[in-house]
Design goal:
The complex is a heterodimer of chains A (about 260) and B (about 375). Chain A is an alpha/beta fold and about 260 residues long. Helix content of chain A is about 40%, strand content about 25%. Chain A contains nine helices and nine strands. In chain A, strands 5-6-7-3-8-9 form a six-stranded mixed beta sheet, sandwiched between helices. Chain A has a three-stranded antiparallel beta sheet with strand order 2-1-4. Chain B has about 375 residues and is mainly α. Helices cover about 55% and strands about 0% of the residues of chain B. Chain B contains twelve helices and two strands. A two-stranded antiparallel ribbon of chain B has the order 1-2. In chain B, β1 and β2 form a beta hairpin. The longest helix of chain B has about 30 residues. Chain B starts with a helix and ends in an 18-residue tail after the last helix. Classes of the chains: A alpha/beta (about 260), B mainly alpha (about 375). Chains A and B meet through α4, α6 and α9 of A and α1, α9, α10 and α11 of B. The structure holds adenosine-5'-diphosphate and magnesium ion. The site of magnesium ion has 3 residues of chain A, from α3. Adenosine-5'-diphosphate binds next to α3 of chain A.
Chain lengths: ~260, ~375
């Protein structure tokens, strides 16, 4: 535990390895974010404590951490769904948030109607809408599913439809919350590939991917490790992977003693 | 720190699925069985949590007396109820069955809606043979169009329901024999010869079994209501199993469109309907999953008192409601993120009608502006 607090202290103060001005090269910047809630008993309970996070443009970064450490809360703060109690947030616009459970996100009866749902707020012609929907579905590898009723899709396919819905809005930042929790291995890989492909094909899209599955790290350009409401470490995936494995090993030793 | 445990979940991702596959329930029960067996073996000295024996029912040897087993056991019932909820393969209300695609799947949902309405209205005021014909027709259609296990299940349930209705009504519609209310005085008083009975063997009383009797009136009431019940339930479930709820919604929208001119908020109604239809599956899944959750705790129902059993059920309902509310909150949040502000006039819904109905809309005009389907 001391080990991790030491690391956190160094990580939170140090700017990340690229030392240019944040607003230019970083799609997501969060400085000293705190988030507190007041419980029913009237106590203040802080979920995020002084979190700082920098994500470079055009990359896929993963946010890891045990359950309940505040990953979803951090993501919602970044998405603007929650107001931080303290600290400042900058995220490139337009940004989009994809929820953990695809059943919450996919609301329309057919694939194309759902992908087009987010476009309803703009004043677009039907051709433009059609073009964007087709392109977004191409990016997630489901071009032939245009007219499919949503309830005939598997979990992973629904998740990809949700991502396509975000892409159709031509957003610059994708905030993805534990998309693979409900999926089996096959679907899981499909969704990761879909995100990676769409990043590659559009060039300028940044994604922050929340997960608790270690094996997904190999697909990332960088990773952030959180624990107990604090960012403990950030850096390249292999370092984070090693760090977590070491922690697991020491934890196992503790149990076995 | 907990990531170590999570690797276990990675190995069996099904455990993390929102929707439990049906085979899982068996697996889970097996798991739990093994777990509790091994626990019992390893902790033999563990005292029982509660001793439910009723003192007066226990004789000197500590054995229960015979009469106690005749009391209906609520514990057994509770377990059975939860087990059947958790193990239900499809939702209790007939859900859409996407495959195998039958001829009924390809019928336009608007036509199906009209037929549904006709089947509800027709048998009410028609001849007995007509009613019976419709029942027979629906039964044959179900047998022909649906996969075997589905129609067996459906028809079985509907026949059971209408059968019970038939028997109850046939026996009770004219149950009290009208001993007092005879108005015509008996021939002995008037001195006139008795009215000759029908040559065709007409009998008002058809069957008499002790106190029970079946009369013509009872039979007619019973057959009418049984046929009506059968027709309504079976036609509705036929329609629901072969049509997606969204298709039905868009068919309904097509019928309601003219009402727009008299100020009916068709767009709002249909969008609300669509959202609630999306929600139904979540609700059923939630009911099933929470039941599975309770079952997997391996509650020893026999050791619970009646009040405690009721308490578990109240907890169950509360859990379902709180989960459903959290789902609703998440859906609302997701829709807000996607730019929906609760106003279906400013938020266009694209591609809804054409793809959901599966046929080109009749109200579509060639001018490109109207091609974007406003809901
Ligand atoms: N609205 C809320 N009310 C009370 N507690 C909350 C609320 N939102 C989050 N929490 C708590 O904050 C912690 C972090 O939650 P979350 O961000 O969802 O964690 P993660 O996504 O990393 O699993 C959890 O302990 C959770 O119980
Ligand atoms: Mg979370």
């Amino acid at each position: 535990m001391n080990y991790s607090t030491l690391l956190r202290a160094s990580a939170a103060v140090l700017p990340p390895h690229f030392s240019q001005s944040p607003s230019e090269n970083y799609a997501i910047t969060g400085r000293n974010l705190s988030f507190c809630i007041t419980t029913k008993q009237g106590e203040r309970f802080s979920i995020l404590r002084n979190c700082s996070i920098w994500i470079p443009s055009g990359q896929l970064w993963m946010l890891l951490g045990p359950n309940g450490c505040g990953k979803s809360t951090l993501l919602k703060v970044l998405a603007g769904l929650l107001n931080p109690t303290d600290g400042s947030v900058y995220v490139k616009k337009p940004k989009s948030f994809v929820f953990q459970n695809p059943d919450h996100q996919v609301v329309m009866p057919t694939v194309e109607a759902d992908v087009a749902f987010g476009l309803g707020k703009y004043d677009l012609s039907r051709e433009e809408v059609k073009y964007r929907v087709t392109k977004a579905l191409d990016a997630v590898g489901m071009p032939e599913y245009l007219h499919r009723p949503v309830q005939t899709l598997s979990g992973g396919q629904k998740q990809r439809v949700a991502i396509a819905g975000a892409l159709a809005e031509a957003c610059k930042v994708l905030l993805l919350d534990e998309l693979t929790t409900f999926l089996d291995e096959n679907d899981q890989l499909g969704v990761i590939r879909a995100v990676k492909n769409s990043l590659a094909s559009t060039g300028d899209v940044t994604a922050l991917w929340v997960t608790h599955r270690l094996e997904e790290l190999e697909h990332a350009d960088g990773a952030v490790y959180m624990e107990d409401g604090k960012v403990v470490m950030e850096g390249d995936p292999s370092t984070i992977f090693k760090f977590i494995k070491d922690q697991q090993a020491s934890y196992m030793d503790q149990i076995n003693c | 720190m907990y990531l170590g445990f999570l690797n276990f979940f990675n190995a069996s991702p099904h455990f993390l699925r929102g929707q439990c596959p049906e085979y899982l329930s068996d697996e889970l029960q097996l798991c739990n069985g093994l777990l509790s067996c091994s626990l019992r073996k390893s902790i033999p000295s563990l005292p029982p949590l509660r001793t439910p024996e009723i003192q007066c029912a226990v004789d000197s040897e500590g054995k229960r007396r015979g009469w106690k087993k005749w009391i209906p056991n609520i514990a057994f019932g509770a377990d059975k109820v939860l087990r059947s909820i958790a193990g239900a393969t499809s939702s209790p209300i007939c859900q859409f069955i996407p495959s195998p695609t039958t001829f009924l799947h390809s019928v336009d949902p608007r036509i199906k809606l009209v037929w549904l309405l006709a089947f509800i209205l027709l048998p009410a005021r028609s001849h007995f043979y007509m009613r019976f014909g419709i029942v027979l027709y629906l039964a044959l259609l179900s047998v022909w169009a649906l996969p075997t296990n589905v129609w067996m299940d459906q028809l079985g349930r509907v026949i059971l329901l209408s059968g019970i209705l038939f028997i109850i009504l046939a026996l009770s519609a004219d149950g009290a024999p009208p001993t007092v209310s005879i108005r015509t005085p008996p021939p002995a008083i008037t001195g006139l010869p008795n009215i000759p009975s029908s040559f065709h063997g007409y009998k008002y009383l058809i069957l008499k079994l002790g106190p029970l009797q079946i009369t013509r009136k009872g039979l007619s009431v019973a057959s009418t209501s049984a046929c009506l019940t059968f027709t309504i339930f079976q036609s509705a479930s036929l329609c629901l199993t072969t049509t997606t709820p969204e298709q039905l919604a868009s068919a309904l929208r097509w019928f309601m469109l003219p009402l727009k001119h008299i100020g009916v908020p068709v767009a709002e109604i249909i969008l609300t309907l669509l959202l609630s239809l999306r929600f139904i599956n979540l609700v059923f899944d939630e009911i099933r999953n929470v039941a599975l959750g309770i079952l997997s705790r391996r509650i020893n129902w026999e050791q619970l008192t009646t009040m405690e059993t009721i308490d578990v059920f109240i907890q169950y309902v509360r859990r379902i409601f709180s989960n459903i509310f959290s789902h609703a909150e998440q859906i609302a949040q997701a829709m807000i993120v996607r730019g929906f502000r609760g106003d279906s006039k400013n938020h266009k819904i694209h591609f809804l009608s054409d793809s959901a109905v599966g046929v080109p809309d009749i109200d579509k005009k060639p001018n490109p502006d109207s091609l974007v389907q406003y809901i």
